[in-house]
Fold this sequence. Notes:
globular; 8 helices; 5 strands
Amino acid sequence: MPIRLLALGDSYTIGEGVREQERWPNQLAAQLSGQGYSVEVTMVAQTGWTTQDLAEGIRVADLQGAYALVTLLIGVNNQYRGLDIGQYREEFHALLEKAVQFADGNSGRVIVLSIPDWSATPHAMGMDAAKISAEIDVFNAVNLAESDKMGVGYIDVTTTSRRASADPSLLAEDGLHPSALMYAAWVDRMFPAVMLSLGE
Length: 200
């Protein structure tokens, strides 16, 4: 039987601007296959989704059964739209509870990824990059605190995302979203935690 991976998120999970096999959940599945696993990937993610949108997407998806690994990466669109940080905390917490439920109640099989910093991309040109970056840090402080409370794994991909300001190869052609190369760096960063969560 294949292990079931559920990836919850937004454009960073669905891989806006890259091919399907270049999305990080698919790259993760490929690395796991190299370790002898058969992996079935399910994504509930769309470009532009906020925490509220993801909650509705999960409801509509009507997911069934338990997953061996559940990942959650959400919040950049809350920041981009200037939504309330208190609302983000509340909705992120609810999503995290859902993620643990999907992992059959095992918080050790849930991994949160931090929000990438889009101020390091050409899309932020002419904007207040320092303000954007500071706001991303505030949102990440919230999702880290909530992750710690729930005892789930947490992977910082924000630091990697900030390298894009000096390395255009880390961005897709749209100049905003990660390239396959950046997603590969994310997978390398999270792989030890993934193997640990799977009991290896």
